[in-house]
Amino acid sequence: INSGMNEDGWRVGKPCENIVIRSCRMKEGHGGVVIGSGMSGGVRNVHVSDCKFFGGERGIRLKSMRGRGGFVENIRFDSIEINDMRNEAIQINMFYGSSTVVPRTNIPPDFRNIRIGNITGKGAETAVEIRGLPEHPLTDIYLNDITLEAAAGFVCIDVDKIEMKNITVKSTEKRSAVFTNTKNIQMENCRI
Known about the structure:
Elements: H1 6-12, E1 16-22, E2 25-27, E3 31-35, E4 43-54, E5 58-63, E6 71-83, E7 88-93, E8 110-131, E9 141-159, E10 162-175, E11 178-182, E12 185-191
Parallel strand pairs: 1-4, 2-4, 3-5, 4-6, 5-7, 6-8, 7-8, 8-9, 9-10, 9-11, 10-12
């Protein structure tokens, strides 16, 4: 899901919005459902539910970078099975490092009100990676009822508010959770 890159996305100013993805099966490729990195025109009100992702690079992926501006808001993933990903099962990344169009500014994107729940799966390299920008952290991330098994567990960097409830992440290679520059964390019944 893309809505333009950098100045071009701002100029056109047409967000991708009110999108429902339901009961789909995704196999291989870049990701099961990916938002960005071209999201400068904005993305909002996306609901993905009752899907299965098999193989590929990542399952759930939201990505952007400095200079994109724009917003990604009111995003919900619910009842998703994610198996055999070469990288992350779940990734929210504002520190994305690759682009066909290099930004001319440092205007950060805004990611807010991201809800991911009822997720199961195994076989990823990393279960969950959530990464904001040091000068502009991610905010309002809500994770609930997630059970994942991966080589590496949980990475959370530059996040200002995250709520986690009923999260179980099993690291098969004993790489545990990493929280860096993260504040306002609420955890209930989490084993990561």
